[in-house]
Design brief:
Length: about 400
């Protein structure tokens, strides 16, 4: 089946094959064609070019973009969208003056979500998660990574990973699963850290064997997991084919970034705090730094110092961190707008960060993240006559007219 999209005002993120990420100053450039067409066969981009060279195809479905801008779908490389219920009471408690750390110390935070998740039937968890997935699809996300980490028991973690697998089977979307057993220390292991680490270590081979996860994550942070513990789990993850993607430098800088780089992590995520040593460790690394501006916004913590990182020549990706505690939104349009408004990224840099670099951060840049012949036909079409600068400018408004996944229009 062929689809020809015509009269595109601007076709964004047009790249030759082989570019898997863009760094530093190169992120300022967003390659595009004006007055363009795009040709899709089944779920794959076949060709694109200038409107004046548009082929005449009788058997193709023709979609008039009405001078809208067409860009590759957002890629969300960091979410926790499988969760039970919400944490709206903690939201109100924070407004009334409690900090995220104080709430966690009272048994709230991640342990609150873990209690709710363990009490919920798998079917109900699937239904709640599917609603969130459908919402982000409508908002233009074309591929998503989802973490476990609200089970913190063998059964709870496996339940989450099974739900992610079911979402993957039932939705036309590329989904990667990450095992985040080391998200917080459960109460029952308060005096037995070693016991909990061993529980996670025992799960890694099983999860790898049953292909329940693609990646391994650890919350490397003061009061959560130490750098040494993180290194131990990353080594085991690598041994079983679960490449690390690490939560690090959210509240404190304790050397986790250099450790993650040493263990070949695919990404290091959060980075609200970044030291000179962290910047040096990331130079030339395979590891993609990932910023999560919705989290900074929602719990009022610093934003990742994007300008400093780009100036140092580093690449940067953006993700939503969709989760009940620090970012109860998976809207990548908001993420891109907030990166522009609060992190002073240009629209070009933010779009690169939320597409091609984000695809790299979830290991799919060979097939996703740009308008490239042979890549997946996943796109966002804006309303008529929209310049792409208007996407972040009109923050909080929806400028998306149509979303395509695997070459098909999402109803
Ligand atoms: O990425 N920082 C660790 N984990 C999540 C939030 C966890 C929660 O509060 O539920 C995050 O922000
Ligand atoms: Fe997170």
């Amino acid at each position: 089946m062929r689809t020809l999209i015509i009269h595109i005002k601007t076709l964004l993120q047009v790249r030759e094959p082989g570019i898997d990420k863009v760094s530093g100053t190169a992120m300022a450039e967003l390659p595009y064609l004006e007055e363009a067409y795009l040709l899709v066969e089944n779920d794959i981009i076949l060709d694109y070019g200038l409107m004046r060279d548009c082929p005449v195809l009788e058997d193709a479905l023709i979609i008039d973009a009405q001078q809208g801008t067409l860009l590759p779908s957002w890629i969300d490389s960091h979410t926790h969208l499988v969760y039970a219920g919400n944490r709206v009471q903690e939201f109100v408690d924070r407004i009334n003056g409690l900090s995220y750390a104080e709430i966690a110390q009272r048994g709230g935070g991640i342990l609150n979500s873990a209690a709710r998740l363990n009490a919920m039937e798998e079917e109900q968890l699937y239904r709640e998660s599917a609603v969130r997935l459908e919402e982000i699809i409508r908002q233009g996300t074309g591929a998503v990574e989802i973490k476990s980490g609200y089970g913190l028991t063998v059964e709870g973690e496996l339940k989450m990973l099974r739900v992610i697998q079911r979402l993957r089977e039932n939705y036309p979307m590329t989904i990667k699963a990450t095992f985040l057993g080391a998200h917080a220390l459960p109460h029952v292991y308060k005096d037995n850290r070693e016991g909990y680490l061993q529980l996670i270590e025992a799960l890694i081979p099983q999860i790898a064997e049953e292909k329940l996860a693609d990646y391994l994550d650890v919350f490397c942070e003061t009061d959560y997991f130490t750098v040494a513990e993180t290194e131990r789990l990353m080594a085991m993850g690598n041994h079983y084919g679960l490449q690390p993607k690490i939560h690090v430098n959210q509240f404190t800088a304790i050397g986790g970034i250099a450790a993650a780089v040493r263990h070949n992590a695919l990404s290091v995520d959060h980075l609200e705090l970044v030291t000179e040593e962290d910047l040096a460790a990331l130079q030339g690394a395979v590891t993609m730094p990932v910023a999560l501006p919705s989290c900074s916004y929602f719990i009022s913590i610093p934003y990742t110092p994007a300008r400093q990182m780009l100036q140092a020549g580093l690449p940067l990706a953006l993700a939503s961190d969709f989760n009940p505690g620090t970012s109860p939104s998976g809207n990548m349009n908001f993420v891109v707008a907030t990166a522009c408004i609060k992190m002073k990224m240009t629209p070009e840099e933010a779009i690169n960060a939320a597409t091609i670099n984000a695809a790299y951060a979830m290991g799919i840049s060979a097939t996703h993240g740009s308008i490239t012949r042979g890549k997946k036909a996943n796109f966002i079409l804006t309303q008529p006559n929209i310049h792409y600068h208007e996407l972040p400018y009109a923050f909080g408004s929806n400028r998306i007219a149509k979303v395509f996944l695997n070459g098909a229009l999402i109803p």
